[in-house]
Every structure is written in structure tokens, then in C-alpha cells.
Amino acid sequence: MDKLIEFLRRHQLIVYFVLTYLITWTLLFLFQPLLLEGQSFVAPLVILGVFAPALVSIELSAVLSSRPRQGSRKPVVIAFIVVWILASMIIILQLIVYQQMVWSIPLGIASVITGLLPAFVASSVFSTIPGVRAHLRTYIKPRGSFGYYLLAFVLFPAIWLLGNLLSRALGTEVPFFRYPEVDVKLLGIAIIFFLYSVIFGGLSEEPGWRGYALPRLHTRFNPLVSSLILGVIWAVWHTPARFGGIEAKSPSDTFVEWVLIVLVTIIFTWLFNRTRGSILVTALIHPAMNTTSTFLNVSIGAYILLLVFTAFVILLDKMWKRLPSDHPAVFSSPVNLGPIEDSVFASPKLFQEKLEYQLPKEKIDEY
């Protein structure tokens, strides 16, 4: 067991990416054919694999945590039950209202089963395992300026809308919305879709891609290279759904999507670093991006503005330079305090002094 843990500790990124791909692709190949054959009740189960990034990151954080459990399990249970109920309701509403599926008992059961996963991730924020709690703590203890969280909401709608205005100024008539009729009903559908994307995006992917993988990439590469690596891996991860799957696209459209994913990964990285490693900010911009691209038309003007903004943040933060090792967005292994005399444990002040000596101030609260 010790050898396994040491192997996982030495190869955290490789193990993470391999397990994430394995779980996601296995579940997609298992359930996609059934849905494509018309068995709609499996629709919620098809997207179970989307939670692989979060689940793998949580399990690895738990296995690699060397400290004993701490705290009460009561907040874990309460969070699990509340999120399970809410997530199940949102999944059912999404399937019936947005995807216009017919209600059935099997569909409801599958939705409730799928709701267990967001409940597990959300409740893990309060985990009694210190490593897991440290990994997810920025969901409830966000860092950085409030302005970045507001920007996470409005950035992509602004780029899409301004881009369409730019396209019109260049002589291309582009409708702002994908839907011919914009009314209160469409607004309600958009809200349901956003909440659904918070679950399948904000909770399912961001704890893994940004919360787990990105800080570890930062230990080896600068933010720009880290983003390019993660962007390619994130893009290719979608492959089974794009090539003949539930979200099938042509090879050319898929290639364009991959380029866009790499660009938005750079923006996500920029926000993550600006908020000192906060998962919450990317958990907000992810569903905002998905909702925007679903309900607003995209134009060449939007692509131009997205490229310009990406170049702007690269230059602004000089993302070709490595982050300092004590930056909160850079992964730091749990501190090894070495042999500590009993007197240290008897003296909280002495323990704090030793901790401060070996860790930067920003890292202390994580341990």
C-alpha cells in the first residue's frame, strides 16, 4: 500500500489524466449507444462520466492525505441531502423543459441516481479528510477581488454581444439570439440551463481541471504552457461525444471547438491565478460560457474579440513567466515538518512558528 501511495504521489498528474479519461470514455461508450437508439431514460446516466474530473481529484486528494480525519460529519450529511434534492430537480427540469423529453418513472429514477454525484462533490467541501477539504475549500472561502467573480458572469455574454455588433458594423447581419422568439419562457429555460451547467461544469469539471491539474502543472510550467497543455487535454476529453456521439459534430467544427477550448482555458487560468487559486471563479465562468454559447449566436466578430481578449490577458500577466513557488495557485505538497518533539505539540505557538518557517503565509490556512 505504501508503494502504491508513493507511486500516486510521484505521478499525480499522469494518474489523474489517465483515470479521468478512462472513467469518462468508458461510461460514454457504455450509455451513448442506448441513448442514440432512443432509450431516453438513460439520458441522465450518459453524463455521469462528466463527473470524472471532480471525482478522480477528490479520491486522489483523499488517498494522498496523510493527516487523520477532523471535524464533524454533520455538515457533510446536510450538504449532501440538500444538493441531492436540488440537483435531481434541476436535472429533471433540464431534461423535460429544455430537451423536451417525456416524463417517465425510469427517467426520474435515473435523474435521482445522477444527482448523487453533484451531492457527493458539494458535500466533499466539508469533508472530514483534511486533504479533500483543503482541495475544495475555495468553493466556500473564495479568494481575490469580488470584481473577478462579477467578470466571470459577464465576460462571455459581453464578448458574444459586442462581437455580434462588430460583425454588423462590418456588414454581416447576425441575429443576437439563437431562438426566433425571446420572451419570459426563454429566460426561464436559460436560468434552468445555467443551473444545470453549474452542476455539469462548475461542480463536475472545475475541481479537477482547475482545482487539481492546473496547480500541479504550475509547479513545472509557466501559466501559458500550463494552459496549452490543459486546454488540449480538456478538448480531446470531449472526443467520444463529438465523433458520432450525443453531441456529434463535423471534424472541422470539432477542430474549431478545440481551438476555442484552448483559448478559453487561457482565460480560465488567468482568472484562477488572479483570484489566488479560487475554484469558485472558474465554477462560475464555466456555466456562464456554456449558457452564452447555447442561447446567443456566435459570429466572426465574437471570435475576433475572444482572441484579442486572450492575447490581452497573456500580455497583462506576462503568462510566459513562471509563477513563484509560494503563489497560492501553485500546488504545494503537505508540509513535512520532520521530527517534532512532544513539546511542539504541547505548544501551539511553537508549532505555528515552525509552520511559518516552512510555508508561505498564504499556504498556512490550508494545513
Describe the structure.
This protein is mainly α and 367 residues long. The chain has 2 domains: 2-317, no CATH class; 335-367, no CATH class. 70% of the residues lie in helices and 0% in strands. Helix 5 crosses helix 10 (184-203) and helix 14 (251-274) packs parallel to helix 16 (300-317). The two termini are 24 Å apart. Residues 335-367 have low confidence and may be disordered.
Topology:
Blueprint: H1 2-10, H2 12-36, H3 43-46, H4 52-63, H5 74-98, H6 105-114, H7 116-124, H8 130-136, H9 146-169, H10 184-203, H11 206-218, H12 223-237, H13 239-242, H14 251-274, H15 279-295, H16 300-317, H17 342-346, H18 348-358, H19 361-364
Helix pairs in contact: 2-4, 4-8, 4-11, 5-6, 5-7, 5-10, 9-15, 9-16, 10-15, 11-12, 11-15, 12-14, 14-15, 14-16
Q: Quickly count the domains.
A: 2
Query: Structural class given helices, strands, pairing?
Result: mainly alpha
Order of helices and strands: HHHHHHHHHHHHHHHHHHH
What ranges have pLDDT less than 50 throughout 5 or more consecutive residues? Answer: 335-367
Shape: globular
Question: Which sheet architecture does the biggest sheet show?
Answer: none
In short:
The chain is mainly α and 367 residues long. It is 70% helix and 0% strand.
Question: What features would you highlight for this structure?
Answer:
disordered C terminus, 367 residues, mainly alpha, 2 domains, 19 helices, globular
